[in-house]
Amino acid sequence: MKSSFTVGHLFGIPVKIHVSLLIILPFFAWAFGSNIIYLTENTDIARRQLLLNPYLLGFIMAVILFISILLHELAHSLVARTKDVETTDITLMLFGGLANIEEISKDPKDEMKIAASGPLTSLAIGVISYFVGTFAPNFILEDLRLVIVYTGQLNIFLAIFNLLPAFPSDGGRILRALIAQRTSFRRATEIASRVGKVFAWVFGIFGFISGNFLLVFIAFFIYIGASQEHQFSNIKSALSNLKVKDLMTREVKTVPANMSVHRLIEKMFNDKHSGFPVFRDDKVVGIVTMEDAQKIPQDEYSNTPVQAIMNQEIHSVKADDELYEAFKLLFQKDIGRLLVMEDNELKGIITRSDVMTGIRVRELENINGAEAE
């Protein structure tokens, strides 16, 4: 089962919804609806002037919140596009949204512009919405005015929160870009990650003392994000100057599309492989893994061909691609192997194990080099 699904495209960028959003959306609707009285107290709107059910209003506010997050992430994507950096997709999820930008710009100034575009967009939406809602004419329904005013408040908060200098927020990336203008990108990431962890500890301790477990949860999220960013920076450094062809397997074992699943399992056992490219008429038509075989009952193995269970979505790289690009694709797609293709011809295969071997070898080289010095 896929964890996210595409609901449309904006400027050619796929927009996806993660299943966690469907879980958290009703909670936000309930939270907003249950606090309508508190929300009206912050405005000049009287509770009795509202016509809609509080929880319906809460649902509308929750939907608008995630639309605002979508616009925030879209701003990142469109500014990145002006810097020749593409966005694979935008995903709305439990923690908000994520623009899956393919590569961090090598120019710190470009990264700063990309990172700042989201909070600036949220701030603009917030200020405009708050102004429009506050000074709306009297004939506007109070329900609509409340939604507009609160949309403004939410977006202003979203902008401020994202400017915190802590990964994975935009503020953390802005901080890294500022530091990277004076030192290496890896060192800048390390410093920015440490700052993020300090914020995480402060939030966590304050949340624990005050009994605000939401703040503790946010602290945990920031700490994990900072750690991952630092780890990815180290991996990118370790894989620098390595190509896919340096670690790929050139003699690839394959299976025909009409092979039975029973024989496939035997081949997996004998060859000690958990996945194979699938061929039909001398062309790669898919890839089959142990997980695919487990989708059908064992008593159907003998009568089911591989082509019935294989994955026809083929993820591939080229032999001269950077190994780090292969690592990113493996991570983003959550898959175990990539085909190495040239002009629709299979040249090799590279797995997660191959990439991890490259990382370990580079780490050993760095240790030995440090000892030699």
From TrEMBL:
Cofactor: how and how many bound: Binds 1 zinc ion per subunit.
Cofactor: Zn(2+)
Keyword Repeat tagged: yes
GO cellular component assignments: plasma membrane
Every CBS domain range: 248-306, 310-366
Residues engaged in binding Zn(2+): H72, H76, D170
Official protein name in the record: Zinc metalloprotease
Organism: Halanaerobium saccharolyticum
Taxonomic lineage from the root: Bacteria, Bacillati, Bacillota, Clostridia, Halanaerobiales
